[in-house]
């Protein structure tokens, strides 16, 4: 029964993601991950939803979790590569702000 729930939540999340319903996607992925914390599809979809909301740090956390589970997952690797420049920019901007505050 748990397997079925995970599949159902994953499929619903996929549908919501197709309609750019990012908050609903995240909620459904969280439900799937509650039953199966190492579900790569749920982590990938959650990452995509966070990206859609421009929540790149959360997206990065999601995709890194997926890559820890399966470092060879090609889709997760591609997603991580596309997020990396955004994360680097966030870190650079953060460093600049800190230097201005304390420099």
From TrEMBL:
Record bears the keyword ATP-binding:
no
Which PANTHER family does its entry note? FK506-BINDING PROTEIN-LIKE, PEPTIDYLPROLYL ISOMERASE
**Protein name (database record):** Uncharacterized protein
| Family annotation (InterPro entries) | FKBP4/5/8-like, TPR-like_helical_dom_sf, TPR_rpt
- Ranges for the TPR repeats: 6-39
Q: Which UniProt keywords apply?
A: TPR repeat
Pfam families (alphabetical):
TPR_1
Answer yes or no on keyword Oxidoreductase: no
């Amino acid at each position: 029964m748990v397997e079925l729930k995970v599949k159902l939540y994953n499929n619903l999340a996929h549908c919501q993601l197709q309609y750019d319903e990012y908050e609903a996607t995240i909620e459904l992925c969280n439900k799937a991950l509650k039953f199966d914390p190492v579900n790569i599809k749920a982590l990938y979809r959650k990452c995509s939803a966070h990206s859609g909301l421009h929540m790149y740090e959360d997206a990065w956390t999601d995709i890194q979790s997926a890559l820890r589970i399966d470092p060879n997952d090609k889709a997760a690797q591609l997603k991580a590569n596309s997020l990396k420049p955004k994360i680097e920019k966030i870190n650079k901007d953060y460093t600049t702000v800190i230097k201005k505050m304390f420099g």
